[in-house]
Design a protein that fits this description.
Length: about 170
Amino acid sequence: MDEGLKKRLIGAAVLASLAVIFVPMLLEEPPPRPPPMPALPERPPATDFASDMLRDEIPAVTPLAPIVSSAEPDKPVQAPSAPQGQTPSQAPRTGLTAWVVQVGSFSSSENAQKLVQKLREAKLPTPDPELVDIRGKRYYRVRVGPVIERAEADGMVDKVNAISGTRAKVIRYP
C-alpha cells in the first residue's frame, strides 16, 4: 500500500471517531436541574430546656443504709447524722479506707521496674510503677499495696525498707 493512502485512512478514522464522540454531546439536551432544597426548619426556642434539673443538689457520697437487726424489727432506724458543728457536706468520708506503702519516686523507668521486680520476688503486692507529673517533671512512683488494715501496711514498711534501701512511708489510698 501506498504511504499517502495509509495516512489518509488513519486521518479519516480519527475524524470519524471524534465525530462519534463529540456530535452526540452537541445534540443532547442540557442536564435537568436538581430539585430545589426544602426550606430550613424553624429556629428552636432559646430557653434552656433542662436548666431546672441542674439546680438540684446531688450528694457527693450517698451514705450506706444502716443494718437492721432482727431483734428489734418494729423500731424505726434513723440514718446517722453529721457530728455537731459540721454540715452534711463536711461529714467524714464513709466506706472503706485503704493504705499503701509508698516506696519512692524514680526519674528512670528502668530503676522503678527493677525495684518493683525485687518487691514482687519478696511476695509483696506491688502494682506497676505509676507515672506522675510533679512540678513539670515525670517520675515513676513505686507503691506496695493497697491493704485494708493500716497495721498490715505498717508491718510491711521494715521489709520494704530492707529490700529497697529507701525510707518508705504509709499513706492513705487513693
